[in-house]
Amino acid sequence: MRIRPLLLTLLLVGGFIYLTTSHRWSGFDLGERARSWTSLEPVQSAGLTPEENSNIAIYKTASPATVFITSTVYQRDWFFQVFPVRDSGSGFLIDSEGRILTNYHVVSGSAKLEVTLGDKNRYPARLLGYDQRNDMALIKIQPKGKLPFLNPGDSSNLQVGQKVLAIGNPFGLEGTLTTGIISSLGRQIRDENGRLMEDMIQTDAAINPGNSGGPLLDSPGNVIGINTAIYGPGANIGIGFAIPINRAKAMLNDLSSRGRVTRPQLGLTTRFIPAEFAEALDLPPRSGLLVQQIDPGSAADQAGLHGPNREVIIGNSVVGIGGDYIVEVDGQPVNNRSALTQILERKKAGDALKLTIARGRRTMTVTVTLGEEPQKL
Questions:
Q1: Global pTM?
Q2: Residue 80 Rama label (left phi>0; alpha psi -120 to 50; beta)
Q3: Do the Cβ atoms of 125 and 115 come closer than 8 Å?
Q4: Contact, 188 vs 196, CB < 8 A?
């Protein structure tokens, strides 16, 4: 009867000795295990990819030149009391003297503009000029010293699929970088006032409220567009738009040579028709721009261009037919929807524009003297 308790005691003691000895021999007692974790050298991460290194380098260069803009507009309430309403957006420096490109809608109607730089210094800003139709504006601050700035790229040879980077201040979160690709070119969208904006760059790089006015960059870090809009209400859903930077160059040239922006006005809207669909609409078998509307009293109206006389439904769209079909602009064939817009970017008010059109069974050349688009701030 006494053997069983003794045996149980021996088994427990022997098990304890075995466990202690085995842990000591294996080198993993609790104290040593704790020391083994705390004494480890930091593990080196795998090397960054070339694309990651490129993104980092572009951000380090472009972020200090991207600014945060606060706009103050004074309004009246129901009791006619004046109160300030503040909005914000982005912009970017184009020279070391403090000139900044942004969107027109970021500064429109503002009684007070304030710019916050990447180093958190704040400066009052003044408006130098704007292009309302293309939603662009140029503002200026008086910095204490030379500032970093971005270099302009060329938006005339962009390709769908090429990489782009967007920097801005979405929802007031300063210095945010997003990446993506060019999803499409030559897009037409309408701004918040219903004005048609043509030849826009579409991108899937996340563009949210507050990104407006910030730079869209290519892989070398050059500015190829000005971020301006998102598709749909609220936050980004993968469809954003930017103004081609070549359009901003034209505005800057006007400000430099004339002291103001003079946008040429043709006064018509068109719809691009690919060659394979032209014959189905009883048009010459070549791609072109079918006139959809002519503004009364405009340059196009005065030149005698014709608009549509009836409508047809193609897919889910209503298309006006029976009007003039533009097949060449200044002798250049219309191969894409941006052909007319790209040539107008190089024109000024008062310049001549030659349009080769098909009207019924006849082909003719019409010379249009471009008007000047009125602007209101």
A1: 0.66
A2: left
A3: yes
A4: yes
